[in-house]
Write a structure and sequence with these properties.
Length: about 325
């Protein structure tokens, strides 16, 4: 349903009645329930088919809502909030004892973010309470950057889908934990270099991040079509005709379908269309998707992370 004042009010009423609603954010679409309603949060896990050990991100409108879900905000956390909120940074902070354990999968911490998308903010305001929301896709699948992606994968199982067109950033938020020492748990829409410019080096050992962020599971973000990361120009031409190719830029002949993320190789532009391109290639039902490796800096790091996990499904 198109996001308007009336449909946002209706979505908020559904949330307050224990419903589960999909809504747009600047990163990807989220599948939301009130964070303080454990029964509704349980429905999120059920709808996604997500193992219940995987904690949810809690979305807040302002400091008042933040104070309801966290036990405290360190000066370092405050500094990152001042710099990056509202926006695509998720911080892992000590949780308030009243926040349901289901939301944080029993952890002593909560992942929290203040979104910038006007519809997400309007929904938080109308609901008047923090909203727990993972990305609105079946567990392990491609993240949705359009309402149509949500409708196709989960449509009949959610109470309402607010449609505000394509997500502007197109990749999930960057997740940072601050204790015991600042660490990158998931590369995302804010380049790690930008965060390090603010607070210094982040620990980034993916093996260490894994138990802490199941978005860090080796197999994740995967299309149904087998995907491999390979320089498409090195693929024999007879192997190309049954496959689709995802290119950062440039061209490659002989593939059944080609998706180019940016004419100029711009990583921000590429990230914005990244999941959309994978959804489109996946929908063609080809035998394989060949994905060109991304440069491992800036937003290329987050895209390469997603591709590596998608490839691990095979
Ligand atoms: O951009 C985004 O972050 C989107 C939009 C909807 O906000 N949300 C999103 O949520 O990507 P989700 O659930 O798909 O990914 C959240 C990740 C998961 O990998 C989860 O394990 C991790 O955050 N996470 C949540 N709480 C955590 C915690 N307390 N400690 C460590 N990791 C946590
Ligand atoms: Mg997700």
């Amino acid at each position: 349903m198109r996001a308007t004042g009336a449909s946002v009010a209706r979505a908020a009423a559904l949330l307050r009645a224990g419903g589960v609603v999909a809504f747009p954010t600047e990163t990807v679409y989220g599948l939301g329930a009130l964070a303080f309603d454990p029964a509704a949060a349980a429905r999120i896990f059920e709808i996604k088919g997500r193992p219940s050990f995987d904690p949810l991100i809690v979305h807040v409108l302002d400091d008042l809502m933040l104070a309801q879900v966290v036990a405290g905000v360190s000066p370092l956390a405050r500094r990152l909030m001042d710099r990056f909120w509202p926006g695509a940074l998720t911080l892992v902070l000590p949780k308030d004892p009243h926040l349901p354990a289901l939301v944080t999968a029993g952890l002593a911490t909560v992942a929290v973010r203040r979104p910038s998308h006007p519809v997400a903010r309007a929904l938080l305001e109308a609901a008047g309470a923090p909203i727990a929301a993972p990305s609105a896709n079946p567990f392990g699948g491609l993240s949705p950057t359009r309402a149509e992606h949500v409708a196709a994968a989960l449509g009949d199982r959610v109470d309402l889908i607010l449609d505000a067109g394509p997500s502007e950033l197109g990749l999930e938020s960057t997740i940072v934990a601050l204790e015991p020492e600042p660490a990158l748990l998931r590369a995302g829409s804010i380049a790690v270099e930008e965060i390090e410019a603010e607070i210094g080096p982040l620990e980034r050992r993916p093996d260490k991040a894994q138990p802490r962020a199941p978005g860090g599971l080796p197999v994740h973000y995967a299309p149904r079509t087998p995907l491999r990361v390979v320089d498409p120009h090195s693929v024999a031409s007879e192997e190309r005709s049954a496959a689709g190719v995802l290119l950062l830029q440039g061209d490659c002949e002989g593939y059944a379908a080609v998706r180019r993320l940016s004419e100029s190789g711009d990583l921000r532009e590429a990230a914005a269309g990244f999941f959309e391109a994978l959804h489109a290639l996946d929908a063609l039902g080809l035998g394989r998707i060949d994905a060109q490796p991304m440069p491992e800096h800036g937003l290329g790091l987050a895209m390469m992370d997603r591709l590596a996990r998608a490839a691990a499904r095979r």
